[in-house]
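Service request form, structural biology core

Requester: graduate student, group of Dr. S.
Request type: structure prediction, single chain
Budget code: on file
Notes: please return the result as structure tokens.

Sequence provided:
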Amino acid sequence: MSTTSNPNSSYGTGKQYCFVFNQYLGLYVGYLIELSLSSYEWKLEAKLEADERIERGFRDKNHLFKWTDESAVEEIDDMKILYDEKIGHLELQSQRCEDGVRSFEKKIEDLGDALAGFEKEMKEMKELVHGYEKNVKSLKKMVVCGVGMMIVYYYFAM
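Core staff response, request fulfilled:
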């Protein structure tokens, strides 16, 4: 008893559908091989509209994988848009970061220049303070000498 002769057998009908599917698949794959499409040309082929596909040689406009082609093209377009948005956002962020780095570098240069000016002023102030210390010491010596002379004059003049 054969499974294909039994009308209630699902194996027989499944086998027939499998054969039909493989037949269409074989025709489709054979046609692609016949066209000798490279991967780049296939990507370009996937982007064409349905009318352009018919003009370029598809035998059946309602072929087996038409919905997968259209959904793949839509997914590719969506990913391309998302990719472009992300790249644009990243470029904007990197530009902002570069601007921030440039401004910080300029501020660091300004602070370095200010620090060099303050070091110069500190040297001048140290020299000035050292000169004042010498003046104070000599003034102290003059006051001590004057007080000493007053004491000597007071004892000898009286």
